[in-house]
Every structure is written in C-alpha cells, then in structure tokens.
C-alpha cells in the first residue's frame, strides 16, 4: 500500500500537459469525488496499525502534490493561451488542403494539345450546341447525303436548326469563318451521339480536331504530321498505317491505325488479333469545303484529322469500360493524382 502511494507520487511529479482538458482529466482521476485520493483515505482503516503514521503522511503529500500540479499546469496553460492570442495555437500543424486530381480525359487532352502546339498549332474551340450548317452542310454533307446516317444526332427542341454537335469538325468551319490561311489549329471538345451507352461507346465523349491549310500542303505532310504525333504520344517506335476511307469533308480520306503490338492476350483482344488499332480519321480537306469558306482551292490545300480522346485514354491506362470515365467515382479518379 505504501509503495502504491509512492508510485502515484512519481506519476504526479512526471505529469505534464498544457491541454486544459487533459489537466482536468488528471485532476478528476486523483482529486475527484471517486478519485484515487478519496479511495486511499477510505482504505486508511484497513492499514496495519504500525504503518498508519507513514501512510497518513504520504497520503497528505500526494494530495498536496496533486493540488499543486493542477494549479501550476492550469496557470501555464492559461499563460500560453493568452500569449498566442485568443486561444489560437499557432504551433499546431496546419490543416492539409486536399488536392484534386486531373481527370484522365483532361490529362490526355492536354498531352495531345501540347504535342501539336510544339509544331505551331494553336488551340481553338467552338460551341457544343451547333447549327446544321456548321455541323453538316458546310462540311460537304448536304441534307440528303447518306453520310448523315453515320452519326445519330441529338436535336435541340428549341430550334429546328439546332443540334448537339456530333463531331468537332464543326470547329473547322467556325475557324475558317474567322481566319484566313495559313491555318494550323487543333480544337478539343465534347461531342454527342445518340447511341446506346455500353462499355465501348458513350453518348457524350471528347474529340480533338486538327486543321492545317496553306499553299502546297500535300498528303505527305499529313502523314508525317500524324507520324510525329503518334511517336510523341505512344513512343519513339510507334508505326502508323493509313487505310482508304470515306468522309464527306476530305478527299482522299483515310482511317489511321497505330501499331499496338501483339505481345499479350490483352493486345489480341483490343486489336482483334491484328496488332493495329484505329485512332483517328483524316484526309485532305475537300475543295468543296474550302469553297464554302471562300478559300480558293486552286491556291490553297490542307489536311484535317479528328480523334477520340477516350479511346486513347482507355489504351494508355488500360481502362476496360468507357463508363468508368464518367461516373466520377473518387476511388477511380484518385488513381490519377500523381499524373500531371
Ligand atoms: N469527324 C469525324 C468523326 O467524328 C472524324 C474526322 C475524320 C475528322 C476525318 C476529320 C477528318 O477532320 O478529316 O468521325
């Protein structure tokens, strides 16, 4: 019993805190109504007679020590509070700001734009709600043209001529309305198609359009520009191939594939066993489009291309389902925190 009190004395001597709540806890533990000191006083009657004087002495010392400690610590806590200005503890670590992360679509979009900026393209944008002229007619798709069926369109009820743009090619037209050649511009943005949502397609996605118009621009310039792009995007060793295709706004037109490889089972799956992946459409700007924009096709020529951003995001980060990109699940998005 005597050793017990001695241990408590040591504990009291060692106790330090400038937190008022902890000091109060300490006080209650020892000097509270059901505290240690009262308990020890209650036990006094059971102490062997010969120990009673020493026990009483030690117990009184403990009581005093506790009172003194509490008074000292309280005074010190009060002192530090007022010297730091109204209860504000300036030594506490600050609250960390939770940094957001860039969305993977924006990460890839920025990379694409940077790659073209380095070879003299500027960045232009146009509206997501378009009219028929900019989205179709000026791009050499007249009303009766069968190629309009290639894209299922969302129309805007407010006006019979309005729609959600189905591609960023509409920005080519807007850009040529305002600028004369030479033109080098890339136009990123959202596009909309009335399609069923699935793992591979969404009714809203992103494209980057490119337009280059000058004197003497040839298909070889297009090919070299796209080869430069794929090497910057997918690595030094990338190869491309161009397959003849059809777009009303380009002639000739091509579909551009990048060689992805056939090393893993996954490569077989995403390239359907060919090793090649389609990443964009491209071609030489159709003379009719230039004429629509009052640019003389005898003097100027140019190329254009358009690519889907999600497609490239899914390839680069091995994302199996496009819907993951638009569900805004924090667990998914936070994985891109370290990517700039
Ligand atoms: N607008 C086409 C699409 O959405 C992509 C495209 C193909 C854009 C060829 C172009 C081009 O500028 O020349 O599928």
List the helices and strands and how they pair.
Blueprint: H1 2-14, H2 20-31, H3 36-42, H4 52-83, H5 104-117, E1 122-123, E2 129-131, H6 132-135, E3 162-164, H7 169-178, E4 183-192, E5 204-214, H8 219-234, E6 240-247, E7 250-259, H9 265-270, E8 276-285, H10 287-292, E9 301-308, H11 309-317, H12 330-333
Parallel strand pairs: 1-4
Antiparallel strand pairs: 2-3, 4-5, 5-9, 6-7, 7-8, 8-9
Helix pairs in contact: 1-4, 2-4, 5-11
The protein binds 3,4-dihydroxyphenylalanine.
Number of domains: 2
Total strands: 9
Q: H/E series, N to C?
A: HHHHHEEHEHEEHEEHEHEHH
Which cofactors or ions or other ligands sit in this model?
3,4-dihydroxyphenylalanine
* Cα separation of the termini: 66 Å
Query: Helical amount among residues, as a percent range?
Result: 25-40%
Mean pLDDT: 91
Low-confidence stretches: none
Give the biggest sheet. 7 strands, mixed
Query: What is the count of DSSP helices, taking H or I runs of 4+ residues?
Result: 12
CATH class category name of the largest domain: Alpha Beta
CATH topology of the largest domain: BirA Bifunctional Protein, domain 2
Gyration radius from CA atoms, angstroms: 37 Å
Report on this structure.
The protein is α+β, with helices and mostly antiparallel strands. It folds into 2 domains: 85 residues; 236 residues, BirA Bifunctional Protein, domain 2, CATH 3.30.930.10. Helices cover 39% and strands 19% of the residues. The protein has 12 helices and 9 strands. The chain is rod-shaped, with a radius of gyration of 37 Å. 3,4-dihydroxyphenylalanine binds next to strand 8 and strand 9. The site of 3,4-dihydroxyphenylalanine has 11 residues, from strand 8 and strand 9.
